[in-house]
Write a structure and sequence with these properties.
Alpha-Beta Plaits, 2 helices, homodimer, SCO4226 family nickel-binding protein (chains A, B), 4-stranded antiparallel sheet, SCO4226 (chains A, B), 29% helix, 5 strands, alpha+beta, SCO4226-like (chains A, B)
Chain lengths: 83, 83
């Protein structure tokens, strides 16, 4: 298991409710892939969303986000953390 | 005060010690700008570092990072958070 930071683009105007709902959809199915989405941050102005997860692989992160309806191409392992 | 995510590039090979030391340098001077750096994540392979802060402005974040010796150009407000 490793930490991953994934970055969504093109989500201009996203609201707090929409972010919570997207996160809820991830949480509902993440166990199938052994992923856990821990945190998320969004900038509605630029349309950027950052998600922090603990996952077995970047592909597992991608599969959960895709199945939840918000596919992502940019997934970065972040093995070093200060939290 | 708002949350900001800033992104450093070109830090390939960064070690856990180097990340901790960089964070320590930020913490040592951040109060001058009213900033607090809360978390950081690094990918030594791609050389990317993400820092999460609470700050009065993106410029304040930039000034602290620059003064600490690791200037950053990419600073994104992230007013929506799930933590």
């Amino acid at each position: 298991m490793s930490k991953y930071m994934d970055v969504h683009h093109g989500m201009k105007g996203i609201t707090a409710d929409q972010l919570r709902e997207a996160h809820r959809r991830d949480l509902a199915i993440e166990a199938e892939e052994g992923v856990h989405f821990e945190r998320a941050w969004a900038d509605p102005k630029s349309g950027t969303v950052y998600c922090l997860s603990e996952a077995p692989s970047a592909d597992a992160v991608k599969r959960v986000h895709a199945q939840a309806g918000h596919p992502v191409t940019e997934v970065h392992p972040v093995p070093l953390t200060i939290e």
